[in-house]
Every structure is written in structure tokens, then in C-alpha cells.
Amino acid sequence: MRTVLQKRKRNFSISLLVLKCVFSSIPFNCKDFKNYRLVCRLWLKESLPRWRKEAWLHVRDGPRRQDNPSLLLKDFLQMLNMPDDPHRLLGEKKFHKYKLSSASGRTGFFSESSMTQFWGKVGASITHLKIMDIRVQQCDLLARVLFEMTPNLVFLSLERNIYEGPQYRFIEDVVHIRIMAGRTEIEKPNPSEVQNNLTHFEINWGGVGRFGINWLYFFLRFPNIKSLKTQEIDENADGHDNDWELSEPYLFVTSVRAVQEYGGPDSLAKLEYFDILNLKLIANEEYPRRAMRISLTTPVLLTSLSLDVGWGRDSGTFFYAMLVYLRDTLKKLLVYRGPYAQESLSNTLCAGPLLPDLVELRLIGPVFENLNFLSIFPNLKTLVIFDGQTQIETEVLHSYVDFALQQLSQKEIPGRAFTDKINVIANTDFTSEQLKCREMTHMREFIVGHELCNREQVEKLAKLMPGLTKLRLGLGNSGFQVVCEKWNKLRHLDTEPFDVDEDGILGIENDEKYRHSNLTDLKELTTLRMGIHSTDAEKGRLTNASIIDGILVAESLRNVSFQRVPKASKTVREMLVSKFPQ
């Protein structure tokens, strides 16, 4: 009996060890982890450390709301003050990621009492912090929290907050200008105020007001920022008699330059990613000339950049100058250009600088009119081209472009008509001097938003970029057959417009299946998305045969999605949805 009990205990210990290992190593997904924690008490207990490390705790200062599943600040403070910490909010299994928000007019997170009751207890444990929709009446307390009470902060996001009384910044902002003019030396912070752990900073002004802390003062205390993202700045906020040098955009951009130039050799030396794509939530006509001069004299050597270059006639001048300036360092580039431009930037860059290190390029709007620009990006691995007009499903867009669909649509200019879409592939002369002998051997992902390509175009694309593993393209039967023949290493195929019918999916000729290259030839394909059709309503409908003899027998398919209801029997539709839930 004792032997049996010992064996059971040993097996239980092994199971517990395996469980600990699983929960500490599997990719974290909030929804999945919630389900794991409902399995049993043991799973609930052993998943807790990982849950507390990765999940965001949302604390809200305000009345309870049914549509906002958050913990009220007053309840959270009561839990913190309970004897022996029964909720484990302060021990080894404490939360590390906090999202703080507030009801209108509430200031509980930045009051004298909160300094001890909230920040004094959890501030040192916070590594990721989002502060959202809060009215900050005492900006000196905000500075105290950021520079003294959260020493382990790695990620900071400030979204749509209102900072009252930032007028005290005026003297500091004037000093900032004097520093930029070389008339005043920069005053460095005390070492105790410098936070070396912060690497990612995001701010969304919400289009209202100024930040409550002078930018020079702010960036000097966070010298190791690698990623900087800004959104919805109020360009005219408190500009002091329309003096552009005292406007928020100018002070923000120049503070980065000043800290790098005058703050010491390690100040913002690691800044690699700069996202000013949605600095204003309206399409720029021109990139501001003064900001352009500052941008192109900043000593930082960026590796990743996202920006709106402007849809106006002279926007190409800045774009060209920017590429020249960053040609030796830039690896990732996202360019947005409002869909109002009368001409592309192709002529500006026809003899542009060679960017051998650029591996990811995302173009939104009428940036180039054809693919000739590939000659200056010889080592691209990822190329995304969207027209900036087509309303693409949010989840589809997010898989290719790192910004929200809502923000893209908000950049439209009310009352201004879009220009005609540019069919980049149709406009490309593959026998041109730039492309006739070119092979993009490193290219793995090619994403095009709206073009329907014929057989000849797909064949030329396959010759230009033969090693693709991820493709989005508009296809009919003939183009689909070429894809299945030439790119048999594809893992991800997204077709929109989707004008492929049963003959194309199954490679049918003379009523005989599999005579031509077809879906079953894509042996490594794991993801297949079939979007909407173009103009022919009979195209793009899955049938019994295309489902049973095509999709269901494809060896490696794991994810299948379709926009149109299949033209198939109820039984076959159920088989499809059972294997690939929509």
C-alpha cells in the first residue's frame, strides 16, 4: 500500500513539474489562459505566476460601468490594505502590467494620498504602464511617479489625458529654445532621477492640449528609449503668440535631438524606432518644412521609421532627402501618403539612393506607380502595398500593417475626393532597365491590397520574387494555377479579389480534376483566406467539389476563411466549418 502511495505521489510531482514548465513556456494568450484557469484548482494555482506577469490589470477611478470590466480604485486600495495580503497583490505573484483610467473629473491616481496608498505600494513592481483618459491636475505628481516611484518601468503609454496647468512649462520651453540655439548649456538630472529601464514610450494626445512636463526634462530622465510613438498631437496647442518654435510638435522633435546632442554620449543613443505616422489624424499635404530640417539633422541613426510624407506636389523632396539621410541604417519603413495625390513619387526616386539594409517596406496610398522602385531596395524580405482607400477588414489589415483601421480612415480629409487608384502591378514593365535582370531572392512576403492579376502578371511576379512564403493578391483561375505551380513553398495565401471557381481550385480540364496545378499542390500551405469577388457574382463561390476534393484534402491547412457563403450542400458546409471554424 505504501509503495502505491509513493508511486502516486511521485507521479503527481512529475505532473506538477510538467504543468509548471508548460505554463511558464507556452505563448501567452489572454483568452486561452482564462480557459486554462477554469479547468481545475491545480491549473488555476499553477497558472497564476504567468498570469500575473503577462495579464494587464485595469484599475479605474470612477463609478462602476457594465461595459468596462475593470477594478475600481477604491476597491483595489481596500484589497491592498488587507492583512496578510490574501489576494497576493504585493508578493512574488504580484501584477506587473497596469492600465489606469478615470471617469470625467476624477484625479485619484495623482493626488497626495495616492502617492503612498497606491504608487508607494505597487509602483516598484510595475514594468508596463498605460495611463488613459485621466485629468492630471498636479503634473509635479505625475513627474514624481514616472521619475521616482516606478523604477522598473519598461513600457509607458499615455493616451488621451488632459494635463492641467502646463503653462509652468513656458520658462522651461524658452530655455529649451536657448539650448537649441547654443546660448545655454543643458542641465542634466540627478542620477537618482534617471530611469534606465524604460525602452518603449507611446503618447496619444487625443488632439487636445500640451503634455504636462517639458520634453527636454522628460527625455533626459529616460535615456535608453528604443521605441518612440506619437499620435494626435495638437499642432497649435498653446503656441505662445503663434511662435512655431514654442509649439508642441517642434518642442517634441527638437527635444529628442537636443538630448542626443547635448545630454551625453548615452542619451537616447539606442533610439531605433520612430513612429510619427499619425502625429496628426488628417492626411498631411506637406511634411512641415521646419520639422523636416530638424528630422534630417538629428544625429540619431534610426533603423525603423513610420511617417506620413504628405500628398502634396513637393512631398517627394522630403522623402528623397530622408532616404539619403537614413540609407546606411534603415531596416524597416512604413510610408503613408493620403489618397489625394495627383502623381506618385516614382519620378523622384527613379535614381534614388541604394538602401541595401532595408528588409521591410510598407506603402499606404499613392506612393509609387509601379514596381521599378525595387531596384533601390535589393534585399527586401517584406513588401506591403495598400491603396489607402479600400476598407479592409480590421483583422486582415492588422496582420500586415501595425496601425488601426480606424486611424487610417480618420486620416481622410472631409469633402476632398480620392484620386484614382494606382494599379502598381499592371503599370509595371518587367522588361524595364530596373527589373529585366533582377531577382528579389530575399523576398518572402508580398502583399497587395486590391489588384486583380492575370496569368502573365503572376508569372512575371513569380520570376521576380521566386521564394515567397506569404502572398496576398487578387486572382482568377489562371493566376491561381500559376501561384500553385510557381510558389509551392507558400505557407500563407490571401486572395482578394477572389475570382477563383471550382475549375481553378481543382485544376480541372475537360471535367478531369488535378490536370493543372491546384490547391493540393501547396503542400506547406497553412493559412488560406478567400476574400470578396471583383465584379462577377458567380466567381469566388466554393462548391461541394472544391471543398471536398480541394480544401478538405489539402495536407497542411490549419486556417481557412471565406467571405461568401459556399454554394454547397448543408452537410458539406458543416464539414467545412467543423474543421475550420469561422
Report helical residue fraction: 25-40%
Given helix and strand content, the structural type is alpha/beta
The Rg value, from CA coordinates, equals 28 Å
Tell me the major beta sheet: 17 strands, parallel
Number of helices: 20
Please tally the β strands and state the result: 19
Question: Which descriptor suits the 3D outline?
Answer: globular
Head-to-tail CA distance between termini? 52 Å
The share of residues in extended strands comes to 15-25%
Summed over residues and divided by their number, the pLDDT gives a mean of 82
Highlighted features:
single chain; 582 residues; alpha/beta; 17-stranded parallel sheet; two-stranded parallel ribbon; 20 helices; 19 strands; 32% helix; disordered N terminus; LRR_dom_sf; F-box domain-containing protein
Question: What would a concise description of this structure say?
Answer:
With 582 residues, the chain is α/β, with parallel strands linked by helices.
Could you characterize the architecture of this molecule?
It is a single chain. The longest helix is centred in the N-terminal third of the chain and has 24 residues, at 2-25. Helix 8 (169-180) crosses helix 10, helix 10 packs parallel to helix 11 and helix 16 packs parallel to helix 17 (477-486). The chain is an alpha/beta fold and 582 residues long. The strands form two sheets. The protein has a 17-stranded parallel sheet. The chain has a two-stranded parallel sheet with strand order 5-7. The chain contains 20 helices and 19 strands. It has helices at residues 2-25, 30-36, 41-46, 48-54, 73-80, 112-122, 139-149, 169-180, 215-220, 248-262, 289-295, 315-326, 346-349, 394-398, 405-410, 455-464, 477-486, 502-506, 544-551, 570-579; strands at 56-61, 71-72, 97-102, 128-132, 135-136, 155-159, 162-163, 200-204, 227-231, 273-276, 304-308, 332-336, 360-364, 382-386, 445-453, 470-476, 492-499, 527-530, 559-562. Helix 11 links the parallel strand 10 and strand 11. 32% of the residues lie in helices and 16% in strands. This is F-box domain-containing protein.
